[in-house]
Each structure stands twice: as C-alpha cells, then as structure tokens.
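User: Hey, my collaborator sent me this sequence without any context and asked if I could get a structure. I don't really work with proteins. Can you help?
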Amino acid sequence: MTLAMDYRRADLEPRDRAMLEYAEKITLSPDQVGEKDVAALRKAGWKDDEILSIAALTAYRNFITRMADALGVQLTEEYKSLRRDYLDTLMVGKKLL
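Assistant: No problem. I've predicted the 3D structure and written it out in structure-token form, which is a compact way to encode the shape of the chain:
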C-alpha cells in the first residue's frame, strides 16, 4: 500500500521510480515536461515505445479524472465494499462516500 499512498517511500527499482516521477510531472506540471524528462526515462532503461505508452496512459487517466471532476461524478454505492485506504487513493482530495 506504500506504493499507492506515496511511491517515494516504496522500495522500487530505479526504472519504476523514473516512470512514476515522469507520470507525476505530467500530472502536476505538464508545462514543465521536456526532452530531459524523456532522456531520464531512456537512461533508466525505457524504450521510446514504452515512454509513449507511459505518457499516453498518464494523460488518459488525467483526462478521465478531470472529466469526472468537471461533471461532479461521485463514487457509487458499489465502491463501499472496497478498503478505505484504496478508496482514498482513487479520488485524492475529494470527499468519499
């Protein structure tokens, strides 16, 4: 669960840490992402097609989250059966159930 709550404290391979740092930067400050970030992923062992996948999946997840926020989407009753700590990671900063 450490990974879901704060990847910085998780025991990760350098390759995985680089990927999560990149995804976080795309999410929090997309205007600051540049070639040096892609170069860091290459240095960590990611191939160009994998970097494209990381960028696309991160952007898609951000899009879905922002659309849900923009439309006021709330979790449904069926989510109540999930563990609370997992729920907290689904919708950071929003009131849950």
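In plain terms: The chain has a mean pLDDT of 87. You can pass these tokens on to your collaborator as they are.
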